[in-house]
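Quarterly update, task 2.4: 4-(N,N-dimethylamino)cinnamoyl-COA-bound model.
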Amino acid sequence: MNFTNLLIDVADGVALVTINRPAALNALNIDVLNDLTAAFSSLQENAAVACVILTGSGTKAFVAGADIAAMQPLNAVEAAHFARLGHALMSLIESCPKPVIAAVNGFALGGGCELAMACDMRIAAENARFGQPEVNLGVIPGFGGTLRLSRLIGKGRAKELIFTGDMVSAQEAFRIGLANKVVAAEDLLAEAQSMAAKIAAKGPVAVRFAKEAIDSGLEMDLDRAGRFEADLFGLCFATEDQKEGMQAFLDKRQAKFTGR
Ligand code: DAK
């Protein structure tokens, strides 16, 4: 896979996707959105990939937002098209059957914060800054930020961040549940790789079902969510990995999962 705005490296079951537009702090224009959409469409079908890490190139930014220069002249129809592209990408990442870890290596603002929130987990470098500063530009978050931020950190805190446009530090993001952990900048990729490797060693079908149970379950009432979880639990027993995982425990050995 060759992309103008992305670097992709697949090794040991882990795909590292790097948004590579450092001169514009990795801002999301239509080309980047299209590249990411094509990359995730392909990675989700790639049997050699069990887990994906998404990061930005350089040391300053994960993604500093949607591309303001590209957005400024848009008319309403073009803006709606841009927003739809972004929404579709966020949904694609969120529903990716493989876990996606955002390695947030600097500014994650606007569309960048939205992109990080579409991922399953966020590991933040100490210099990371999160925020939804769209109101500074006379718009609102357009790639699902109002929805995902309020689900992640609660309505009151989400409103504060979105209404004020304030940025929060990596430590504050960790405190409010926006970041899963904070690490030194130089350890960020190693930490993300280590988490990804740990996940890649598990039964991939079980990990996929767990992701589905959490994400879909959160949108259901408890009763339906409980039944959905029970159905997915039952489906695990149709896999070879369930037999292998439990047999390996009984044999006191490491399980060898195949994804079947
Ligand atoms: N877009 C385009 N270029 C950007 C950019 C961005 N979001 N952020 C930074 N850059 C560019 C700068 O213009 C500069 O380019 P040159 O002047 O060198 O050519 C280069 O990156 C370096 O940036 P700075 O010189 O500004 O670097 P500083 O360290 O001084 O400041 C900063 C870093 C991240 C604090 C600052 O760049 C900044 O405030 N950037 C903008 C952050 C921001 O507001 N992000 C949110 C963007 S709005 C919607 C769809 C989507 C959205 C909304 C509606 N619909 C269609 C309904 C989403 C909107 C957003 O994401």
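Highlight for this quarter: The longest strand covers residues 6-11.
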